[in-house]
Design brief:
The complex is a heterodimer of chains A (about 325) and B (about 375). Chain A has about 325 residues and is an alpha/beta fold. Chain A is built from twelve helices and twelve strands. In chain A, strands 6-7-8-3-9-10-12-11 form an eight-stranded mixed β-sheet, with helices on both faces. A four-stranded antiparallel β-sheet of chain A has the order 2-1-4-5. Chain B contains twelve helices and twelve strands. At the A-B interface, α6, α7, α8, α9 and α10 of A face α7, α8, α9 and α11 of B.
Chain lengths: ~325, ~375
């Protein structure tokens, strides 16, 4: 069966101070129908740019250099992916952002914003669109949807705004929902509500999710596939439980070691040495080598690519076996 | 305050170098004429029944902080937890004197700090913020920032300023040549180190850290937390650590205060509060905290969102969202009282006497075996 979404060798160039750099460098992944993939990485790793490139929503200065985005077997044309309303493949995807307040139109009622896609994309009548919008408000768990239809974004709380954004995303009846840090700005009790909503929608509507986050600790709940990104490249992919339980890239292991766990406060988090490199001056070879304790001279010269390291698991590391051995040793102590 | 203070900080070896504790040479210790007299306990910082309300439009009143009291002992790290809008930052601003509370008092070593504070008092309590970029002047180099402080507060004689700047850099783990840099030339973690150096420059007794690691990437968060721990133990600093992140607070603090809608709902030692939470809100926060190896979805246990602080529910302000609420909760406001386990564990819940039940999914979440990443040290 063909995957629902295939992204192949995506390369995005951005500019800073007049100099070009690759914000996304050869990212490929695929998403099964009804599946959920989480892309994890720290700030500046290119995870959000990847999502925006797929939606053809690159910020100014960003340019898609190469790569294919295939939805349901049909390739999206790079040039007109964002142009015109008629491109039906693109309309099978929707995106939600971290900051709902700046993503929503401040001078339109949320109802009108939700009704826009049913009216213009699905070509429903005025009343039918309105009905659909109210139905969507109810679906995303907003109480009293008839009244909320007339509310403006600033009148709503952060959690409710995020629900409205999800309603807008669903209004064009997409098959794929791209989520760009949807819960990062929310309090934990609201975060659980939004995560639960996304998972319910996935089950009830067969929605597929691509979930971008910096927070490793939420991915287990939402996605069974995980991709870890560093300096614009995927460094490890695989089933979430396997990657988190037995990482094969030192960066993934480092992130796990640096994360705090609320249940084990005694464990000292261990920072990854050094800092994220300047994208204009990326280290040669494996870009992680200056921060990696497994690095050898080979890492400086070899352009590492994702290679299979186990069933369904891939890592872009020359020393993934050494890492596995070190983790096994540490576990025995 | 007497002028002896400078002499104290100038004398002998620099208090910042190496292992010598800052508190020993701190200008305020011992100099306060009231120390020991007013306060019976050994609390260094005392927040006593502080209330803050703001007038908002239509003549309504927003109660940001409602009769909040807690004490911080010398050298203690106190964690202040709560979600956005719970008043934790307002409490912090009252402590540093940015906001004058409508009622209540803030005391340092038993001495009340009024609305008009002396330079000494302002020096004694320093605050640092979540976003070091917006709290550092983008046009001043690190050296300018630090030497201005050292000069204005006369921490060291003019000739010693450069040396002290270097000591401060070493203290927060930055190379001395970082002194010449502008804030924009540093990464987020480095900027937060600069913010810490700035707070330490005036040799404070207490540091109020408002979400200091929330804006940082995971891989550098750990180094800043370690720095806080280090400074706490080496300099004997007293730290009020404000965060919404339970994992961070649980890791760093000995004692924890949980706030909801401007009130303290639970307070106690780290172990009591986290292992045996007695307020359903604390329990809910704990269960909602995301966990690495939790594959099952956490079912939301708390309904809805926090109400507006303009319109605080009667009785227990948490009752409309509380899974444990009964009729009494909507009528009688529970006071912050001992839960009866003997240690200083307080909760503001009518049912504080019973171990609060787990809410989510009935059973505790399933965990896989903890992977041994702690053992993976860097090079």
């Amino acid at each position: 069966m063909t995957p629902l979404l295939e992204v192949e060798d995506l390369v995005v160039e951005m500019r800073r101070h007049g100099a070009a750099f690759r914000a996304v460098d050869g990212v490929s992944f695929s998403l099964e129908r009804g599946g959920a993939l989480a892309i994890v990485g720290e700030s500046g790793c290119g995870k959000s740019i990847t999502l925006r490139a797929i939606m053809d929503l690159l910020p100014s200065g960003g340019r898609l250099v190469s790569g294919r985005v295939v939805v349901d077997g049909v390739e999206l044309e790079a040039d007109n992916r964002g142009r015109g309303r008629g491109h039906h493949q693109r309309e099978r995807m929707s995106i939600i952002f971290q900051d709902a307040l700046s993503a929503l139109n401040p001078v339109a009622t949320v109802g009108n914003q939700i009704a826009e896609a049913p009216r213009h994309v699905l070509a429903l009548g005025r009343n039918a669109s309105r009905e659909r919008a109210i139905e969507l408000l109810r679906l995303v768990g907003i109480p009293d949807p008839e009244r909320r239809y007339h509310a403006y974004p600033h009148e709503l709380s952060g959690g409710t705004r995020q629900r409205v954004m999800i309603a807008i995303a669903l209004s064009s009846e997409p098959a794929i929902l791209l989520c760009d840090e949807p819960t990062t700005a929310l309090d934990v009790t609201i975060q659980t509500q939004i995560l639960a909503l996304l998972c319910e929608l996935r089950e009830a509507r067969g929605l597929s999710l691509v979930f971008v986050t910096h927070d490793l600790s939420v991915v287990s709940q939402v996605a069974e596939q995980l991709a870890v990104m560093y300096t614009g490249r995927l460094v490890e992919t695989g089933p979430t439980e396997i990657v988190l339980g037995a990482p094969r890239h030192p960066y993934t292991a480092g992130l796990l070691g640096a994360a705090l766990d609320v249940d084990t406060p005694e464990r000292e988090p261990i920072a990854i040495p050094g800092s994220i490199p300047d994208p204009l001056r990326l280290p040669s070879g494996c870009t992680f080598h200056p921060r990696c304790r497994f690095a050898t001279p080979d890492c400086v010269t070899t352009d590492v690519r994702l290679e299979p390291v186990g069933p369904d698991q891939e890592a872009a590391c020359l020393h993934s076996d050494a890492l596995a051995a070190a983790l096994a040793d540490a576990g025995r102590d | 305050m007497p002028a002896v203070t400078e002499a104290a900080s100038l004398s002998g070896a620099s208090p910042l170098s190496g292992a010598s504790p800052l508190s020993g040479a701190s200008p305020l210790s011992g100099a306060s004429p009231l120390s020991g007299a007013a306060s019976a306990s050994d609390a260094l910082l005392e927040v006593d029944n502080v209330s803050v309300s703001f007038h908002v439009e239509h003549g309504r009143v927003l109660r940001a902080v409602d009769t909040v009291s807690f004490q911080v002992a010398k050298g203690e790290v106190l964690g202040l937890v709560g979600e956005s809008g719970c008043g934790k930052t307002t409490v912090a601003k009252c402590i540093v004197g940015q906001i004058t509370p409508n009622a209540g008092a803030v005391r340092l070593e038993g001495r009340e700090l009024g609305p008009k504070r002396t330079a000494e008092d302002r020096r004694a309590i320093q605050m640092m913020f979540q976003d070091p970029y917006s709290s550092l002047n983008p046009r001043m180099s690190v050296r300018q920032v630090l030497s201005e402080l050292l000069g204005v507060h006369r921490i060291v004689p003019r000739a010693g300023i450069e040396d002290r700047c270097r000591e401060l850099m070493a203290l927060v783990g930055l190379p001395p040549d970082a002194l010449g840099g502008l804030p924009s030339q540093f990464s987020g973690g480095q900027r937060q180190r600069i913010a810490i150096a700035r707070a330490l420059a005036v040799e404070p007794r207490v540091i109020i850290a408002d979400e200091p690691v929330s804006a940082l990437d995971v891989s550098v968060q750990a180094t800043i937390l370690r720095l806080f721990e280090d400074l706490g133990s080496r300099l004997g600093l007293t730290i009020v650590f404000i965060s919404h992140n339970l994992a961070v607070v649980r890791h760093l603090s000995r004692r924890v205060v949980v706030m909801y809608l401007g009130r303290i709902v639970e307070e106690g030692g780290r172990e009591s509060v986290f292992d045996d939470p007695r307020h359903p809100y604390t329990r809910a926060l704990l269960e909602a905290a995301p966990r690495l190896h939790q594959t099952e979805l956490v079912r939301p246990v708390v309904r809805g969102e926090p109400p507006s602080p303009i319109d605080i529910p009667a009785g227990c302000s948490f009752h409309p969202r509380c899974p444990r609420a009964e009729e009494v909760c909507s009528q009688v406001r529970p006071l912050l009282e001992s839960v009866g386990t003997g240690d200083e564990h307080l909760a503001a819940c009518h049912f504080r006497g019973e171990a609060s039940p787990r809410f989510s999914n009935g059973a505790p979440p399933t965990y896989r075996d903890e992977a041994p990443f702690g053992a993976l040290e860097g090079p």
